[in-house]
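User: I'll paste a sequence; please echo it back and then give the predicted structure.

Assistant: Echoing your sequence first, then the prediction.
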Amino acid sequence: MTIRLALTALSFLSVASHSVAEGIAVVAPQSGPYAVLGEQIRDGAAAAASAVGQNIFLVNESCEAGSGPDIAARIVEAGVDTAIGFLCSESLDGALPALAEAAIPAITVSVRWKVLMEDALKKGWPFFRLAPAPDDEAEKLVEVILANWPGSPIALIEDGTIHGRELVESVRAGLEERGLTPVFTDTFRPGQEQQLALVRRLKTAGATHVLVGGDRNDVSIIARDAAAESIPLTVIGGDAMRALDEPVPLADGVLAVALPDHAGDTTAAGALAALAAVDVAPQGYVLPAFAAVEIALAAATTATDRKLPIADILASETFQTAIGPIRFGPDHELAENPYRLLEWQNGRFVEPAPQGQ
């Protein structure tokens, strides 16, 4: 039976009997523009649950404003003890109060909305974020720059988009708070076939290292043009670097602060075997959803043993998962920043050699 058939059967049984007590609700889009991402969440969750004979209850996520209360009602009616998934903030906004009243923790693999977590902590809602927190990317970039290039002339450039501008401004503020002032800052025009004028301005400013708040192809072009001009420039980008390597291939040695590909981790071996058995590739949200189910199951078992609420266990324990050890901090965010310094080598991102750390 394929993952999709297994999911259909489980969903049918759950809806028909409402007897999924002590199970897991998986909230993910089943149609519409986010259906592919929803399928990744369902596939990962189903593989993790199937490995231990656990039921899951599927809840469609429309990602429409005002959909939260209906989603919460379906979860509560199903009698599950934990809900995972939640691709969209609209699903949680309005769902969390009802889930809190029913003592059902929610674990999102995607939503990064800062205000939502602030409200959850203020009101005591059992909401936990398996996705990065909003400030994690910038904080990791500041950490990497200070650790590796404390005496180097740094340039900060961004592409004028909201994300690029906010990321670079956050990094600039973090560096200047610690006494490091960039030698050059600028906004460049994205989507150009060449950036020779930009790299020449970087050279004139004396920059040897540059953070690019832009997409992967713009970073590729900047690195290519710097090499063509014989300008020694260490280039680093953010999580937007995790994209297709086209149309301009990324040069070896370009750096990124990005989420790692956990499919290469030894901790993922069991999950990869379970996914391969049902012909599912470990892409996108597949492994995070697998890990979310692992966390939910482990927390429920420990909560039963200790006669404590599941939310208390989620807030205090370390969980061994397919994406490594996971622990939530007092703020219900990941206790360890999930971003890593990575280097492009031979067609993939890898952790840099020790001297690059």
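The chain has a mean pLDDT of 92. Residues 176 and 182 are 8 Å apart (CA to CA).
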